[in-house]
């Protein structure tokens, strides 16, 4: 049983090539139509189904409601991939955006010390970056570099330059110096905190009524640099309209034994709020609540 994220996205190079070809020739509508069949294939054959169903059961869904939502979850996930390709490849993007509490991001920028935006795999965070590029600030995405190489190379070949950069998490911890440099330049650091790979340090918290593990790294960063932290999400309200939100910035300046659990609890509260608002747009396809003997539990 998969008990932690494997660091790879679903799909293959041929699948991405087909969808990009359809998008360039016919647009989003036909791509979404083909996606219905792809989502149905995953609905029938994916080994992740039992994990997604368990998540919906924790939200109180009945058997039929959970089954229906498993399919819709795959379909919405496919839409996020298509939308991301549209934006990154420079195709005409027919999306509209609404930003709730945008002034919180402006408040962080005005502070002059940079800030950390912590999110989750809810909705389509990459499109939040598309929105942020209009702001006079650079956004640095911190991520694990475990994507399937052939997919990564192909997507990079069709992407246009954006006002964003990627900081890759490395074993030698050099990414910490890159993050420090970015913050000194009053830039934003964006990172997800709802997935971890086997062997990484984790911290536990009560999520949807049951103990779950989260990566320690994002919360350690927040308490190490002591810059403002905002929990930011970008979910779909309709097929072409995205709703972005940001929480009031907060700095975790106390002792780490206190500050890290405090940051985790704040994060969990925000994620629970969002998964209840957008239950079919949370995309973690493994047994999120299971512990693993390969994890390194933090002693903080």
Unreliable residue stretches: 1-8, 147-152, 292-296
β-strand percent reads: 15-25%
Q: How would you classify the helix and strand content by structural class? A: alpha/beta
Mean pLDDT across residues: 83
- Report the sheet with the most strands, covering strand number, pairing sense and barrel closure: 7 strands, mixed
**Helicity range:** 40-55%
Strand order of the largest sheet: 1-9-8-2-5-3-4
Number of strands: 10
**Helix and strand element order:** HHHHEHEHEHEHEEEHEEHE
Any idea what the radius of gyration is? 19 Å
Q: How would you describe the overall organization of this protein?
A:
This protein is α/β, with parallel strands linked by helices and 300 residues long. It contains 10 helices and 10 strands. It has helices spanning 13-25, 28-45, 49-58, 63-88, 103-111, 125-132, 149-158, 174-184, 217-225, 256-277, and strands at residues 96-100, 115-119, 139-143, 164-168, 188-192, 201-207, 210-215, 229-238, 241-246, 296-297. The chain has a 7-stranded mixed beta sheet with strand order 1-9-8-2-5-3-4, with helices on both faces. The chain has a 3-stranded mixed beta sheet with strand order 7-6-10. Helix 2 (28-45) crosses helix 4, helix 3 (49-58) crosses helix 4 (63-88) and helix 9 (217-225) crosses helix 10. Residues 1-8, 147-152 and 292-296 have low confidence and may be disordered.
Task: Provide a quick synopsis of the model.
Helices cover 45% and strands 19% of the residues. The chain has 300 residues and is of the alpha/beta class.
